[in-house]
Design brief:
Protein name: SDR family oxidoreductase
Order of helices and strands: EHEHEHEHEHEHHHE
Helix content: 40-55%
Number of strands: 7
Strand order of the largest sheet: 3-2-1-4-5-6-7
Pfam family, one: adh_short_C2
InterPro entries: NAD(P)-bd_dom_sf, SDR, SDR_fam
Number of helices: 8
Family: Belongs to the short-chain dehydrogenases/reductases (SDR) family.
Distance between the termini: 29 Å
């Protein structure tokens, strides 16, 4: 399927590895000029070189912390009028809420709620004026099924979800959609960090914890970044203009609920 994205531009956050990189690759394959943002310059340049070599797409990079005003300013200077915005920032560390102080909560809100909102604020009016826009927020499956050791993430990302639910109904008439992608267990650094926490709590080896998580998933495996990226690309497509304010859970069937 031709997704109708050739010639569009995208600002993709957290794009040097993992799910953000998966989204950038899938968009580039559709002919989108992508601007990658991440903190680590070396990994970022390596990712950009790989995307250029494999897709032939135009790729720009911004080595910056998107959770800071300075980082957002740098990203928007490099890509001031994106057709597509993919927001993404690493989640807070797992732990026990009894150990968290106010500054931990503020940091979580800054990274996983207020940063996406700031990026949306900076880009959505231009998208509406041009008559096309696709915003995809990478959040977490924990929005639907909270994970006990990820309380900071549960709270901050749920706040973003509520915000998006209201705004997405205001923009869709101008062909600007806003949706959230909710990853479950994907083979990423974040998953391995969480597995280390579980291993520490249970006294089991980390490899065993990961094997048990794979086996417990109805799919019998973890997801791939390519699968995730392709779902993102579809939500950004010309064909997806009637999908807005939605939370697409990608977890291999792990969440057992009907709704």
């Amino acid at each position: 399927m031709d997704l109708g994205l050739s010639g569009r531009s995208a600002l993709v956050c957290g794009a040097s590895k993992g799910l953000g990189l998966g989204c950038a690759i899938s968009l580039a394959r559709e002919g989108v000029a992508v601007t990658l943002v991440a903190r680590g310059a070396e990994a970022l340049e390596a990712a950009a070189a790989d995307i250029r070599a494999t897709t032939g797409a135009t790729v720009d990079t911004v080595a910056a912390d998107i959770t800071t005003p300075e980082g957002r300013a740098a990203a928007l200077a490099a890509c001031p009028a994106p057709d597509i915005l993919v927001t993404n920032a690493g989640g807070p560390k797992p732990g026990d809420f009894r150990d968290w102080e106010r500054e931990h909560w503020i940091a979580a809100l800054d990274a996983n709620m207020l940063t996406p909102i700031a990026l949306i604020k900076a880009t959505v009016d231009g998208m509406m004026a041009r008559g096309f826009g696709r915003i995809v927020n990478i959040t977490s499956g924990a929005v639907k099924a909270p994970i006990d050791i990820l309380g900071l993430s549960n709270g901050a990302r749920s706040g973003l979800t509520g915000f998006v639910a209201g705004l997405a109904r205001q923009t869709v008439a101008r062909n600007v959609t806003i949706n959230n992608l909710l990853p479950g267990p994907f083979e990423t650094d974040r998953l391995r960090e969480t597995a280390r926490q579980w291993a520490k709590q249970s006294g089991k080896p980390e490899d065993l914890v990961l094997a048990q998580r794979r086996a417990a998933n109805p799919a019998g495996r973890f997801g791939t970044t390519q699968e995730f990226g392709d779902a993102c690309a579809y939500l950004c497509s010309a064909q997806a203009g009637f999908i807005t304010g939605q939370n697409l859970l990608m977890d291999g069937g792990h969440y057992p609920g009907t709704f």
